[in-house]
Amino acid sequence: MVLSQNLPQKFQNKAGEVQTHHLKLLQYEQSTANTSPSPSAAASSPVSSSSVSTFSSASQTKHDLTVSAQQLHHPNLPASFHQPTTVIIRKDIHSFNFSDLELPVERPTASAHFIRNGQLLHDLYQRSVTGTPKPPTTELDDIFISVKTTKSYHDSRLALIVKTWFQLAKDQTWFFTDTNDPYFEEKTNGHLINTNCSQGHFRKALCCKMSAELDVFLESVKLLDEYSPSVDWYLGKPSISSPLEIHLDSKNTSLNKKITFWFATGGAGFCLSRALTLKMLPIAGGGKFISIGDKIRFPDDVTMGFIIEHLLKVPLTVVDNFHSHLEPMEFIRPDTFQDQVSFSYALMKNQWNVIKIDGFDLKADPRRFYSLHCKLFPYFSYCPHR
């Protein structure tokens, strides 16, 4: 019996499945046909690339068909399968059960293991691409930490941060200042950037440094542009009880209206996702941040909130674990210190607004930052032995 090349498609597909899943069986049948034919095969006509023979044995309950690959040539089979070889196809191909094919024990096993492993890997891959993907994890190298400072704070605030938290994230933390300082450039391993902005705590200087921070971050994420951005988020905590209301001055009367938006106070710090920051690039990148600050006449953190909440329509997600000097530090419970994102301090009306914590004496550590750092990371050499 010869199978026509016009075999129905579903039969051709079944034949292709037999070829794919039982390649080793075909190789075995070919080798046995060339070396030691079975008694049943010897009793029948020789099997060749141009003949088809039927055969039966005592162990078989149904007749099988032996078909040459040349006579089974169709586009569903790889080119390598179109070489003369022996193929076994069941007559009841509609209900073909691959488990019915049992291979002889003496058959070589190395290649069979390779084929079986390939099938298992393919099956696992098919399951993996249809299953729930593993949620991404955040590593320290995924974070860009920027700290804004000024010349007059190098020997106090900057020195304190460099000695404590900077030691835990040296490669991820960058300081943005307004002067050259060879000492701290060495201490930070080149992570002190002179923005050439004005010194002082006023709007122009603050927006200038924030613009530099944004541009450096945008420059760094260009190395990751092969990864798809995921979610826009703007994390922080406002220092006001209601959204800020401003009026924009413009020759276009349609823009002369009240605008309200939230902003995360810069004193507590805030977090921007890479996805959101990339959306800010055409609006605020390349020094445009400074121009926006000049237009609305507000400091850097307010300008950031204006861009994100008003222009990009991404709401601020309030995270209470951020803390600025504008809130009383003494109300942060010591048993929650390890859960907080940021802390602050300030000397207000000759009184320190600091957290309540045991540790160094007030004269040695009036800001309580050394005491806090040693509570969270007691293995530093300058921490008192516990």
TrEMBL record:
Domain Fringe-like glycosyltransferase: 137-220, 221-368
Subcellular location: Endomembrane system; Membrane
Keyword match Heme: no
Gene Ontology MF terms: glycosyltransferase activity
Region span, Disordered: 31-55
Primary localization class, coarse: membrane
GO cellular component: endomembrane system; membrane
InterPro entries with a match to the protein in the record: Fringe-like_glycosylTrfase (IPR003378)
Sorted UniProt keywords: Glycosyltransferase, Membrane, Signal-anchor, Transferase, Transmembrane, Transmembrane helix
Pfam families per record: Fringe
Coiled coil spans: none
Signal peptide: none
Membrane topology listed for this record: Single-pass membrane protein; Single-pass type II membrane protein
Organism superkingdom: Eukaryota
Family in the record: Belongs to the glycosyltransferase 31 family.
Official protein name in the record: Fringe-like glycosyltransferase domain-containing protein
Species this protein is from: Glossina palpalis gambiensis
